[in-house]
Amino acid sequence: MAGADFPMPGRVHRCTCRVLYGDTDSGGVVYYANYLRYFEQGRTELMREHICSYRELEEQGLILPVVECQCRYKISARYDDLLLIETAVAEVKAFSCRFHYRILRETDGKLLAAGATVNAAVDRSGKLIRLPTDLLEKLRAFGLPGETGP
């Protein structure tokens, strides 16, 4: 099954974005690295709406850089497509969290890409640190199976 490597456990956050002309190559097809930007948009909006904003994390001295990423491409997105970005919290550990993503074309629901990122908790100097307890609890609560988001 398409996207089976990146199951969407628990709640799923959804947001949309339109493919800009600058996201495409000369053939009007989305450049492959831009899917990682779409993943980031989905993760950022999930965090902002359900956990806390990245700005708030940075004010606490916490940064969550991507330390690993995967993307499986299925069908090309094209200029002016409206994309549905689905994001889920797939795993939460003491020092990191894993997010899974699906990007679908809004008009026909076709899966365009699926993937994952692992984000580690580091301080401003880049030293690995534990995720704060309140953040761990919120991430785990969002990632619990059984409920889907808006």
Write a brief structural summary.
23% of the residues lie in helices and 30% in strands. It is of the alpha+beta class and 150 residues long.
Share of residues in strands: 25-35%
Q: What is the CATH class designation? A: Alpha Beta
Main sheet specs = 5 strands, antiparallel
SS-based structural class? Answer: alpha+beta
N-to-C SSE string, H for helix and E for strand: EHHEEEEH
Helicity, as a percent range: 10-25%
CATH superfamily caption: Hotdog Thioesterase
Radius of gyration: 16 Å
Kindly state the number of beta strands.
Answer: 5
At the fold tier of CATH, the topology name is Thiol Ester Dehydrase, Chain A
Number of helices: 3
CATH architecture name? Roll
Measure the end-to-end span. 24 Å
- Shape summary: globular
Query: What strand order characterises the main sheet?
Result: 1-3-4-5-2
Number of discrete domains: 1
Task: Average the pLDDT over all residues and give the rounded result.
Answer: 92
